[in-house]
Structures are given as structure tokens and as C-alpha cells.
Amino acid sequence: MKKIVCESYKDMCRVAADIYTGQLKEKPNSVLGLATGSTPIGLYKELIRRYEAGELDFSNAQSFNLDEYYPIDSTHHQSYAYFMNEQLFDKINLSKTQIPSGAATDPMAECARYDEEICKAGGIDLMLLGIGHNGHIGFNEPATSYHVGAHLVSLTESSINANSRFFGADEKQPTEALTMGIGHIFSAKKIILLISGAAKAEITRKLFEGMIHTDVPACLLLLHPNLTIIVDKEANGE
Ligand code: F6R
Prior knowledge:
By secondary structure, this protein is α/β, with parallel strands linked by helices. About 30% of the residues lie in helices and about 20% in strands.
């Protein structure tokens, strides 16, 4: 595991963008695993900037997102599909983008289809992750056992509360989601975990205790052979 502590969130995004630049140079047809949430927004901005400057080309690459609320239509402004279009997909030239469908009538069949698509693409080359305050990755919530494949999950109170900031008082917040399982996250060739802000200092400290807490899903990442954790000073407790 490699840990990089950055002075600021901006630096963190630049360091992460450098990893993408290296990845696409080495393998232009990379399969990228992507995340939503606040943390990757600055990275996505930097990737867009580099694309517009002609420094990055995604035309041979494709992506799979980690998760999507369920049920939700992709046109709903709170859906992760909508978020990704706004924050990244509409502004760069990825050849193909995939997100689990929150509108699927049969969520189990949708999860099986998503797993199959990831396998057909040859698995994820570079997986981007954020971390929940409770240590969740994707929407793999703290538990004593974990799904290998994509699955429908009931969100914990901690995750619902953390994401409530995105919802207006009159908007119904979904309590379930479709998420990639630990299996596809783990079989990614490289993983980057971004952690930013003082509110994540406690979970960051726990992550770096050097113990595998089975009820902190992100701890499982410490077993991955090619994991880079990029934290800003605040998340690092400085
Ligand atoms: C998002 C996802 C989540 C977030 C996590 C952190 O696709 O899978 O695991 O990465 O909840 O969210 P932020 O970045 O908003 O703190």
C-alpha cells in the first residue's frame, strides 16, 4: 500500500489526475472504475481540464461506476447517472460509460447483468474509490460478511444521513442502492482511494491502524497488492 499525504484537496486531485494520465498513456483502452460523491469532483474537474488542453484522451477507454440509488431513473437529478453526466461524461470523450440501472424492474437481474458486463470488459484496470464515514466503499456497508458480486443493499443510517445534504427538504431520499461487490473492486488491477477533509479523520485513523477491522469495509483494501491512498492533511488528522 502506498500512502500519499497532500497539502490540500487541490493537490490531492492533481496527484490523482497524474495517475490517470499515466494509466491512459500505458493503456489507452483502460477500463476505469468510477465513484460519485463530493470527493472525486475536483479530480473530475482536473481530468476535464487536461482533456480540454489536449493532454488526455479517453476515446479508447470505458468506465463502470460503483453504484446507483434504487429505485431511481437515470434522468432524475439525484441519480448517480445524472451526476456523472454533469460532472464528467458530458465533458470528456470516454468511448462507453456504464452505471447500474436504478430503473431496472428486476434489481437482481440488473446486478447479474452488470457483473457480466464488467467481466466481458476484462475487469477494472484502475478503480477510484471514496470512503464513507462508516468505512463503506461503493455501497458495501459495514457487515461481517460481504457480497462478491453486485447486489441490492439497504443503506445504513450513517450513509443516508451523510448523503442527505444533497437532497432538498421536499425530496424523497432513496434508502436502497445497487452497488458493485467487493469482488470486482478487489479484482481491479490498481485501486486509488481518495480521502479528504477533517470529517474523515476518524475513519482514516482507523484505516491506518494496521489492523483489518472486518466491520470497516475499506480495511479490506489494505490487502490489495496495488493500492494507493491519497489523503489531504485534514483527513490525515494534521
Ligand atoms: C460513491 C460511493 C461512496 C462514496 C462515499 C464518500 O459512488 O460509492 O462510497 O465514495 O460515500 O462520499 P463523499 O465523497 O461524498 O464523502
